[in-house]
Each structure stands twice: as structure tokens, then as C-alpha cells.
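Objective 1.3, modelling of assemblies. Example input:
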Amino acid sequence: MADYEVDYSEVAGRKIGCPEGCGMCCLCQPEVLPEEREFFRKNHPRSLVRVGSPEPHQALALKKGCGSCVFLNGRRCDVYDHRTAYCRQFPFHLYASDRVKVELDLSCRGVWDCPESDALAEAKDLVARAEPRIIPALEESQAVYREFYANCREAGVMSDPSRLRMSVSENISMFADVAYLSRIMDMSEIEPVMSLTGLSPETRLDMPSLEEAGRELAMESMSSGDPLNVPVYCDSGWNWNMFMTSGGKLRWKVMDDGGDLSEKGSADPEDIPLKVPDESGMKALADYVSTLNGRDSFMGSVFSMMDANGYEDDMANAYYGSLAVSVMDLLWRMSMLDHFMGVGCGAEGVKEAIIFYDMDRLDAPAIGAFI
Ligand code: SF4
Ligand code: SF4
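Predicted structure (C-alpha cells):
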């Protein structure tokens, strides 16, 4: 067994499964590793395509170039025994920073609604199988992290990441409360080095500007007309919902198994008010913030942003600000789902918003590597 640290805390104690009829992860074009190509070349030569980003690689073709994988048939996989490592891995994500962290994609309904198998046992098996890919990825990401920390120290913006996490854990309810969220977003922009201690909520909430901030964040991710580039929300009836903006309207579409889209409704984004979760919703939201706070990939995405901004932001400000911004994005998505589908603003509404949001969260650029 190789000598590296693997953190399983996100999956420990969870049960997961893959209910029939979903197929949502088959909308994400899986990479085909070199050792997997022979089967597809020999038996399904037209199923392999070259994809240019983030790095050029071979992947499985999609129906009509933008629907589900060509092998998804009646929501079942036609090549199940030969599906790629990435297909087998979902909904787990292995993220390499200066260690390996196993994370769970909460956009998968099997994580919530199908308590069949032990997630920890599956994760351990997955890590054992991925070992040949883990070691080189970890060496690379450890070097990137060392360089990143050196840059932070040189720029005077370094904080201790474990202390940042601890301060969020001790103040988790602040991140589920819009009154504090607006304060955190403001302070992270104004203060040279922000602290959560002593932070008080706004006495009067500026809902219009909060609403605007949440709307802008969520709409940015829906601004493409290409189904490959917009978030997918798989509802409890296994419909693949997509939301896209065009002509100033937010358009709700559903993709069928053949890759065709039909429009279900539309709204002026300005007519969707920001909803505040009720007590059970706040509890569910606090649990999600706690998950984000424990994720190395979330920390890695904050570091990626700091790197892109030329190390101008203090790490504490960037971290607290990013958490607040993520929650605002999620709340607006909950408001949007409630507007179109009536999911509500309690624990169920927050759960549906997490299902809508988490895949995008995990897709954010990060300085480490997804293995
Ligand atoms: S998203 Fe989850 S539940 Fe749906 S097909 Fe994939 S693994 Fe199964
Ligand atoms: S190979 Fe099978 S499991 Fe993988 S994306 Fe295609 S249909 Fe889904």
C-alpha cells in the first residue's frame, strides 16, 4: 500500500445507491483512459471523440453532440461491464491537494434517496483501484500547493487553512443566515484581513442588492445556449431539467433521452424573488456549508481564484467570501426551483437546490487535481 494520506470523512457513515431511471451522470462526457480505448476502438469505433478541454483527451461521444452518452439506452448502460473508470467512480470525486480527499457529488440522487451500499467501503475500493493514477497526480498537486503557499507568504496574504475551517465550523449558522451573508460578503471586500468574530448581522437587510447578487451568480452559469455548458437538475421524476437564458428570459427546458430539448416554461429573472429558508431549511443549509468547509476541492477553488487575482486578496477574506457567495448562488437556485416547480424553502427545497448546485460547485477550477 502506498504511503499517502486519504481523508474519507465526507463519505464515512453514508449509504448510497443508483436508482433505476436516473442516468444523470451519463450527461457528463466521460474521459476514456488509454488502457480503455482498445475495447471501444475495436467494438464501437464511432463512439470515441477527441475533446479539447481542459486538456485534450479521448471521450465517449454524446447523442446529437450534446445529449447523453451514446451508450445510454432506456436509461441503462449498453456497455456496463466496459464502462470507463470515470463512470465507475461517479458519484465519488478524488481530489489531490497535499493529500487525497474523497468527496461525494451531492447532485447524484442516489446519495440522498437510495441507501443501498456502504459509501466508505466503495470509496476505499475505488482508491485502491485508482492508485496508479493517484501517485503521479499527488506528486504534481503537492508541488503546486507548495508553490501556492510560498506565493501567499511572499504576498503577505497567508492564513492557516485549518484555522479558517475551524472558525467557519464555530460560526456555521452565520453562513445559513442571509443577514450575516450580506455582512460577510461586504466585509470580505472591505476589511484587509477579515474575522468572523464579533461580526453582527445587518440591522436592516438590503434584500434588493442581495437578490441581485444571488441572481447574477446563478444566471452567469446559465448564460449559455449549449446544453453541455449549463447546469442540469435531475428532479425526483428523473427529468433532466436545464435552465438557459436568452432574450432576457430564463428558459426552463427538459432534455429527453434522444438529446432533444422541449421548453417547459420561462420567466423574467427579475420576477423571481430571493427566498429565505425556513428553520428546517437553515439547518439543511448549515449541514451543506459544513460539507463545503471540509472539502479540499472547495479550498482549492478559493486558492485558484487567489492565484488568478494575483494574490491581492487575503486568504481569510477569499475563503469566507467564497463560502458566502456559494450560499447566495444556492439560495437563488432554490428560489428559482420554487418559482418553477414549487420545491419550497424548507429542508426539501434546500436539498433540491443542493442537487441542482453541487455538480457545478465541484466543477469549479481548483489548483489541485481531480483524479
Ligand atoms: S447520477 Fe447517481 S443515481 Fe443517477 S445514474 Fe448517476 S450514479 Fe446513478
Ligand atoms: S458508458 Fe455507460 S455509464 Fe458511462 S456515461 Fe456512457 S452510458 Fe453512462
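The first helix runs from residue 37 to 43.
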